[in-house]
Amino acid sequence: MSTSKNADKLAMFCYQCSQTVRGTGCTVKGVCGKEATVARLQDNLLFAIKGISAYLYHARELGYADEEVDAFLESAFYSTLTNVNFDAEDFLRLAIDAGRLNIKTMKLLKKAHIETYGEPQPTGVKTGTVKGRGIIATGHGLKALAELLKQTKDTGINVYTHSELLPAHGYPNLKKHPHLVGNLGKAWFDQKKLFSSYPVTILGTSNCVLIPKEDYRDRIFTTGPARLPGVKHLSGYDYTPLIDKTKSLPELEEEEGEVTLTTGFSKSTILSLKDKIKELVMKGKIRHFFMVGGCDSPLKKGEYYRKFVQQLPEDTIILTCACGKFRINDLDLGQIEGIPRLIDVGQCNDAIVAIEVVEALSELFGKGVNELPVTLVLTWMEQKAVAILWSLLSIGIKGIYLGPILPAWINDDILKILKETYNIRLISSPEEDIKQILG
Ligand code: FSO
Ligand code: SF4
C-alpha cells in the first residue's frame, strides 16, 4: 500500500494565519514550525469532530445531549487553533478520543431514535411507485421525516425514502404511517438522475445533497443543516410550501419495483438469535462474519464491494450499514438455518449496532474482538466516516480493509502508524482479499 502521488507532492496545506507562505499557504512545512504530519493530523481531527457534530445535531433535534461530548468538541477544536499544539503524538491521542466520543454520540443518537420512534424491526421495503403524488425524503434526518409524515397524513401524498433514510422504514412510529410507501433510488450520488425522472418534490434533510439540476430546482427543498443555491429552505419543520408544491405536480403511476429491500435489524433482534448463532458457529455452519458497508462514493473501484459479497462462501454472514449497503442490499443471499445472511443495521451512525454486536459476539465466545472470525470491509466517502473509523480503532479493532482509496490526508508517517498499530489494509481485489481473510 502506498500514498498517492498527490500526497507526496503536497506535503501539507495550512493557511490559517498571517505568516503563511506568500500569503497563500504553507505547503511543505509551516513558517511557525508546524510539521506536515501535525497539519494532517489536525485536519484528520477536524474531519472526525465534524462527523461527531453531525450525529450530535440529530440527537439534539430529538432533545438528547451529552456534556462530555460537548466539552470534547470544544477542546478538540481549540487544539487546532494557531500555535496551540504542535505534538503529533498528542493529535493521535485526540483522534482516538474523538473515536471514543463518537461511540458515545452514536449511542446517544441510537437511544434518541429508539426512545422516539421505537426499536427497529426487520421490515421489507418496496422499491416501486404507488399511484398518486409523491415526496422523496433524502439524507439522514429521522426527525425531519417524522414531521413530514405527520404533515402529509390524509393529504393523499405518498412519501418515499432515498439513500440513508431507507432505515426509517424499520422504526415502528414511522412505519405505522401507511403513506410511507417505499424507497426510490440507491446511494446519495444517484440523486440527479433519480430526482429528474419522477415528477415529485424532494426534501433534503442533511449532508449528501447535491446542487440540483435546473429541471428539479423548483421541486427540491432543504431543511435543517442542508442548503442549496436557489432552493427554498424550510425551517421550524413547517413543510407547507413543500406540500403545496407537491399538490401542483402530476401523479406518479403505479410501477412495481425490481426488489423488496429488508432493513431494520436492531441489536436486540440480532442478539435474540445469539444461541442459534453460537450453535451454528460451533457446528461449522457459520464460518465468518463480515461488516461490509460505509459511506459510498461513485468511484469505479466501489464495484469491489458487490463483487466481494457475491464471492463470499455461503457459510458467511454479512452485516451492513450506511449508503454503501446499496451496493449489496438487492442481492438474495438467503439464510443459514433461519439466520439471514445479509443484515442491514441502518444508517452510518448505526455502525454502533454493528460495534455492539461484535462486542456481544466477543462475550458470547469468550474471545477478544480480534480473535473472532469477524472482518470489517469498509468504504469511506468523506469526513463524517473518519469519526467512525477512529471509533473502531478506539475499541482496538485491527485488520480493517479500507477503500476504495486511501484518505488523501494520510501521509507515509500516518500510514505507518495505522499499519503498525492497527494493521489497516487497503482493499485489493475481492479474490485476493477473500483468500487472505478466509485462507
Ligand atoms: Fe452515505 Fe452521505 Fe451516511 Fe456518509 S449518504 S456518504 S459520510 O453521509 O454518512 O452513508
Ligand atoms: Fe503556516 Fe503555521 Fe500559519 Fe499554518 S499556522 S499558515 S503552518 S505559519
Describe the structure.
There is one protein chain. The chain is α/β, with parallel strands linked by helices and 439 residues long. It contains 15 helices and 16 strands. The protein has helices at 5-9, 36-61, 67-79, 88-117, 142-151, 172-175, 191-197, 240-247, 267-271, 274-282, 304-310, 351-365, 383-394, 412-422, 430-438, and strands at residues 123-126, 134-138, 158-161, 180-183, 201-204, 220-223, 232-234, 260-263, 288-294, 316-321, 335-336, 339-340, 342-346, 374-379, 401-403, 425-426. The protein has a 6-stranded parallel sheet, covered by helices on one side. A 6-stranded parallel sheet has the order 13-10-9-14-15-16. The chain has a two-stranded antiparallel ribbon with strand order 1-8. Helix 3 packs antiparallel against helix 4, helix 4 crosses helix 13 and helix 11 (304-310) packs across helix 15. The longest helix has 30 residues, at 88-117. The model is unreliable at 1-5 (pLDDT under 50). The structure holds iron/sulfur/oxygen hybrid cluster and iron/sulfur cluster. Residues 140, 163-164, 188, 207-208, 295-296, 322-323, 347-348, 381-382, 384-385 line the site of iron/sulfur/oxygen hybrid cluster.
